Hints:
It comes from Actinomycetospora atypica. One of its GO terms (molecular function) is [glutamine synthetase]-adenylyl-L-tyrosine phosphorylase activity. This protein is mostly helical. Among the domains are: about 350-515, Four Helix Bundle (Hemerythrin (Met), subunit A) (Up-down Bundle); about 705-855, 2-Layer Sandwich (Beta Polymerase, domain 2); about 860-1010, Nucleotidyltransferases  domain 2 (Four Helix Bundle (Hemerythrin (Met), subunit A), Up-down Bundle). Strands 1, 2, 3, 4 and 5 form a five-stranded mixed sheet that branches. Strands 6, 7, 8, 9 and 10 form a five-stranded mixed sheet that branches. Helix 14 links the parallel strand 2 and strand 3.
Amino acid sequence: xxxxxxxxxxxxxxxxxxxxxxxxxxxxxxxxxxxxxxxxxxxxxxxxxxxxxxxxxxxxxxxxxxxxxxxxxxxxxxxxxxxxxxxxxxxxxxxxxxxxxxxxxxxxxxxxxxxxxxxxxxxxxxxxxxxxxxxxxxxxxxxxxxxxxxxxxxxxxxxxxxxxxxxxxxxxxxxxxxxxxxxxxxxxxxxxxxxxxxxxxxxxxxxxxxxxxxxxxxxxxxxxxxxxxxxxxxxxxxxxxxxxxxxxxxxxxxxxxxxxxxxxxxxxxxxxxxxxxxxxxxxxxxxxxxxxxxxxxxxxxxxxxxxxxxxxxxxxxxxxxxxxxxxxxxxxxxxxxxxxxxxxxxxxxxxxxxxxxxxxxxxxxxxxxxxxxxxxxxxxxxxxxxxxxxxxxxxxxxxxxxxxxxxxxxxxxxxxxxxxxxxxxxxxxxxxxxxxxxxxxxxxxxxxxxxxxxxxxxxxxxxxxxxxxxxxxxxxxxxxxxxxxxxxxxxxxxxxxxxxxxxxxxxxxxxxxxxxxxxxxxxxxxxxxxxxxxxxxxxxxxxxxxxxxxxxxxxxxxxxxxxxxxxxxxxxxxxxxxxxxxxxxxxxxxxxxxxxxxxxxxxxxxxxxxxxxxxxxxxxxxxxxxxxxxxxxxxxxxxxxxxxxxxxxxxxxxxxxxxxxxxxxxxxxxxxxxxxxxxxxxxxxxxxxxxxxxxxxxxxxxxxxxxxxxxxxxxxxxxxxxxxxxxxxxxxxxxxxxxxxxxxxxxxxxxxxxxxxxxxxxxxxxxxxxxxxxxxxxxxxxxxxxxxxxxxxxxxxxxxxxxxxxxxxxxxxxxxxxxxxxxxxxxxxxxxxxxxxxxxxxxxxxxxxxxxxxxxxxxxxxxxxxxxxxxxxxxxxxxxxxxxxxxxxxxxxxxxxxxxxxxxxxxxxxxxxxxxxxxxxxxxxxxxxxxxxxxxxxxxxxxxxxxxxxxxxxxxxxxxxxxxxxxxxxxxxxxxxxxxxxxxxxxxxxxxxxxxxxxxxxxxxxxxxxxxxxxx
Length: 1016
């Protein structure tokens, strides 16, 4: 009789070898079973052979069926008939026989047990955990197996000795058989439901707990009634048993707690361990206080005393999994409730996070070197990586969030993702990886019911093929199933290790751990007191901001609630936490729809630390950050090559000009330029406040941005005026003052002059009219109202000042200098350099002014005297009323003006004969003067220190106050912020004032000696 047409069509080939059997005698053996006639499948056995061929090990499954037929004898006909019609039975039986030789042996020894496999699931139904036996059902079954009454408070078995062990072993094997059958059924019959590994693990833990209850009942029977009546005994499940994530073969970790006679309880506990270990799985009590050297059983007070006084960090980590699994349930609950407060305060122990990390490292170091790359459990990228990361996050954040206080790894991982403590993608990837690795571990253990976690070696082709089939992996066209398995396992371990390192070594963990558990969840009254203690001027106002940020049930609110205790603690250590929190709220609200913002602060502790510091220190940054959130991404970058500190000013300028070049309207171009400038200014300010850059780099970057903005604005104005036609004149913009010297500060204007050159056939009047209109359009576009730091272009240094023409031709400029230039104008030209417009015209302008700023014969004495008198008038007249001369960075003692006037007078005196002095940079000029012998090394060092200190102090003071300032305050919150940013101790801001006075006093001593003594 041949197979039905539909069945024949599903068969890939006629020969058993093509079906997946590797045994050469498979055809004959199938024929002996009545399923094969040497050429085709016999009758309605087609589906049976097809399911058998899909078993993880089809040859082993075939051998198992043969053994079962022999063991059943006349009962074989019933099984044969059932297999031909029952898809569920086929899937479960062949799944077990092909996936577990040990369970095949169990069926051969207890052949009637095959009938159990008919009732596990209804074919075609999706998995439903509620249809599996409950924990109480399993407890009752195991107790009844040894004749104990499940309804009694302390059940006692009616069977003891080896007979009880055999009964418990049989009950355990039956339960494992049923679970393995449900687990493996879809391997042979893909249409049957696939049971997730976490459901199987939970059921295995319930079986273990029920078996422990049965073993305890037997131990009570062996101890006698008198030893059972004087105590209560609770068995606390630890490890995977406590977490309801047990393997098929695993130690059952337990701790015993007694009430009453500890001696009697110890005898019963020891008996239970012996019976359980002999009957099913090894019971391990080494997690008890003091480990192997400690007493087996303690009363509750003894446990509490030990954990309060002596327990180490890893012991509290182990208690995360603690739950009552057998014995007196009330005593078990009392135990867990008594120790829970200690578990959830463990993260506040000194070096807690470091201890947990060190423990994980020790686990890795103790792996055998020859199998380290095959370890699914302990190796890098293995199960322990997931568990340690989850447990560390759980212990740190679970103090304030009870939703994280579960025992199960996957459930806790889901809660961490739901609560926003880790990213949703990270949680999903980690959970999927954990399930895959646990599934492989289960399959490997099922094969022989041995405790192992080793992935097959590369040269074990048969083992890899079997495991791939057991894991339902199929060839993908490029690789066979074993190759797919190896690739998937490699991808999984790499992903797990990456996520482990991201979460386990997250800097935020240390910050959260430092916050007291009582401060993670605060009442309004206690929060007000804490904020006041941390330095808030208005705790009530701060609480309103906190409430606005954390209220609601959305994911962003949950992440904010997780972050807030740490952020408040960090802000509390800044000079102005009130304003910093307000700024943080503005940033959060401006980025409310941006998914990466809160994830960045949660996952990158460095970014959170830096953001809180700059917001609580600088009003300038606090006002700008909500409008330039892209800078936030840079705060998480570390190292000298990070974007925060290593952006090339030339590259930034080029990008800015390219972006502006798309706009022909000067106003639109100015808006774009301001926006890009704002981002760069904010980046520079953050790097400056964090001490990641130095004064020359800050000045160069600020100047470069200004130059790029002017270039872009000028280009846009030219495009608007002439379109694509020829321009009536070329224009060059010359930077003066600090812009020309590339020494701009945060509040500096752009001092410029403009020159033009008529095009061929164009008159001077027409050229200057055109050039003036272009320059006015460019400066007007930059000067339009904006909340950003102003872009003020100052042209008062042009010939004749404000009363002179805005733009001159090059000959007109030269004629003015020859006929009318005053000494101060020649001095001002020392900083002149072309910054925008026509490069050739700018170069010729530089050549034209050279004789005036670098006089070949030096500076006449009367002009040197004039400069000294001018400096004296500036010192006397321009210092603001009430200003402290010793602390004024620009006009004060040893400040910027003192150093710059001294340097410029030396340049006017000697640059005509010493070309190395021909630079617009103050610091470069000082270096050249030292090299040329005009200044001693000590004098140059003092002037450099004075100029650098005044420049940095001026810049930081501007950032702190939020507006340009030249005055260093003597005291107060602003001084504290400035001192902190300058690297001085937070608790002694006066040190900053003393240091500034000392440096500038030394600089002034050099100025008094050198500037006044300069002679021709």
